[in-house]
Design goal:
Radius of gyration: 33 Å
Number of strands: 17
Distance between the termini: 80 Å
Strand order of the largest sheet: 3-2-1-4-5-7-12
Length: 580
């Protein structure tokens, strides 16, 4: 590695970490203190350090011994930055990381103007080295995949969000300031940093799981991504600083990607985190175009209705693009130029992260001991056979085929204007012609092999008949039990359910048969799927509704005349009347 002219800094002495309370900043501070080589100045915008010192013995001891100190710094005020970094030989600038801020001016002042102030303060205080915390997202335009991207890639002409664009500008300012007034600079671009204390990635997964959205996979689920454990990122900053201290020419003025060197499927990573915290593994695939259409529709509705954009919503258009694109990066330059090598593997990092968030699992509606192998209520209602597999979208292609065939039959019989017999005759004629022509086709045509259909194609086994009628039989038996219970005259809850069901049936019969059939067709392929995915939420709603009905029943009983209440006691029993 080529060396820049000048002497090697033998005694690094004091360093400053601007943004030392941030996720990456905290890990970097601990690593610097553990090395026993630094007096660390922690600078951030909060009035006090306000960290749990009991859980960080190294930081607690450093504060007591004077090896660490805290400065409240607003990066918009250069004088405050100067006060914090004066006497330091190296400054680690973590930069802005909060993408939830929607005020562009505020983001610009903090990210870009704040970085300008940091650079000017470093030059005035004769700081020798400045390392900026950039992000791999500065290379992502929100549209195109990035496969094994390296530092030779040009910046995109558009960015996925405002923060990425502003961080790219701040990174450019830092690199441009290299070797001016004796200041050596470089920037690191970590990709999807996670670990204990993470306030973004893991908390977003858990929040999505609690709202029921973390059961779905956007797209085919094959998109790869680089995730980086936070301790490895802190190590990369220390290694980069050592290279700048040695005046390595290939490091100064450059930007470097930092990853765990283990690309993983995005949805596999999310599933491992959620499974470790007691949530269900992601299994349901949703077409990316469908999710994007819904997001566009919701955004349009919010704008029309005058709603403010919710920065804390679970799935935003920006997050959609991150989850539906491949983004892997090559950090061989970091390995070659300053010897970066992750010390915590991806599997170990996931395990440590899950363990640190174990308190969230205790509050999770899905207990860790929950058995997800048990069939759902919707699956049991449909007989747990082929019909259940189709209506619950277990095989998307098969379900879509059946749905399309059902729609065509619905049109053929109910919307075409023909009678049932006429439609059946024409359908049989059409099949006969197709089969007759198929019999005359050669075995190969235009390079394609034509498969012959044997008579077994048209045979229906007893098993298929049983699977087809099992849901109907199960539903019939449930109704029979319900009617039997209702006929005894003592189960008033069942009686009211029957009355309400018959009333809704009467309402349905008042509509045309084709309209009812169309609604039933749509609901059959949607409502069971929705009920299975939102079973826990529906159970909670039903429990709340049942509790409310019991309270209402008790209120009504107390309002009845004493003679009528006495009659109900004798007829139904006291326990039945007061079952609240």
């Amino acid at each position: 590695m080529a060396m820049l002219e000048g002497s090697i800094d033998e005694n690094p002495g004091t360093c400053a970490v601007l943004g030392g309370r941030s996720f990456i900043g905290r890990s970097l501070v601990l690593k610097l203190l553990q090395s026993k080589k630094w007096i660390v100045r922690i600078a951030d915008s909060a009035p006090s350090l306000n960290l749990d010192l009991d859980k960080s013995s190294a930081l607690s001891e450093a504060i007591l011994t004077g090896h660490a100190s805290y400065f409240q710094v607003d990066v918009r005020e250069k004088s405050q930055i100067t006060r914090a970094i004066e006497g330091s030989c190296v400054v680690f600038h973590m930069g802005a990381t909060d993408s939830s801020i929607t005020d562009f001016y505020h983001q610009y002042i903090i990210t870009v103007q704040g970085t300008k102030n940091v650079i000017n303060a470093c030059q005035e205080c004769r700081v020798k080295r400045l390392i900026y915390n950039s992000s791999a997202d500065v290379m992502f335009d929100g549209i195109h995949d990035i496969c094994d991207g390296d530092e030779s890639m040009p910046l995109p002409w558009r960015f996925k969000d405002t923060l990425s664009e502003l961080k790219a500008q701040a990174e450019g300012l830092v690199l441009f300031a290299n070797n001016i007034d004796g200041l050596l600079t470089c920037a690191l671009r970590p990709s999807n940093v996670f670990g204990p204390g993470d306030t973004h990635l893991v908390s977003l997964f858990v929040k999505g799981a609690k709202f029921g959205w973390a059961k779905f996979i956007v797209g085919n689920g094959k998109h790869m991504c680089d995730f980086t454990y936070v301790e490895n990122v802190a190590l990369a900053y220390i290694s980069a600083e050592e290279a700048l201290c040695s005046r390595v020419a290939s490091v100064a003025g450059k930007a470097f990607f930092i990853t765990n060197l283990q690309p993983m499927k995005i949805w596999e990573f999310m599933s491992l985190i959620l499974e470790g915290l007691g949530h269900q593994r992601l299994t349901i695939h949703l077409p990316a175009w469908m999710v994007w259409s819904i997001l566009v529709l919701v955004k349009w509705a919010h704008e029309k209705l005058g709603y403010q954009n919710n920065a804390h919503s679970i799935l935003t258009p920006v997050l959609f693009h991150l989850l539906s694109r491949t983004r892997t990066f090559n950090c061989s330059n970091a390995q070659k130029n300053f010897g970066y090598s992750p010390i915590v593997s991806l599997d170990e990092g996931i395990a440590l992260t899950v363990e640190s968030f174990r308190h969230l699992a205790e509050d999770s509606p899905s207990a860790i001991s929950q058995d997800f192998s048990e069939p759902s209520k919707a699956d049991r209602l449909l007989g747990s056979g082929k019909v259940a597999d189709i209506l619950l979208w277990r095989d998307e292609k098969k379900t879509f085929t059946y749905f399309l065939a059902s729609v065509l039959l619905f049109y053929w019989y109910l919307l075409s204007g023909r009678t049932f017999i006429s439609s059946t005759a024409k359908l049989m004629l059409l099949f006969s012609v197709i089969l007759f022509c198929h019999g005359f086709l050669p075995s190969t045509m235009f390079g394609f092999t034509i498969q012959r259909m044997s008579s077994s194609y048209f045979e229906i086994s007893e098993r298929m008949i049983k699977d087809a009628f099992m849901p109907l039989a199960s539903l019939w038996n449930r109704w029979a039990v319900t009617l039997k219970s209702s006929s005894q005259g003592r189960d008033w809850n069942t009686f009211f359910k029957v009355v309400v069901s018959l009333y809704f049936l009467k309402l349905l019969l008042s509509f045309s048969f084709s309209a009812v059939a169309g609604v039933v067709l749509v609901l059959a392929f949607t409502i069971f799927f929705v009920c299975e995915q939102c079973e826990e939420e529906l159970d909670r709603v039903m429990e709340s509704s049942a509790l409310g009905l019991k309270k209402l029943k008790g209120l009504l009983i107390r309002c009845l005349p004493v003679s009528l209440v006495s009659f109900l006691h004798d007829y139904m029993g006291k326990d039945e009347v007061y079952d609240e």
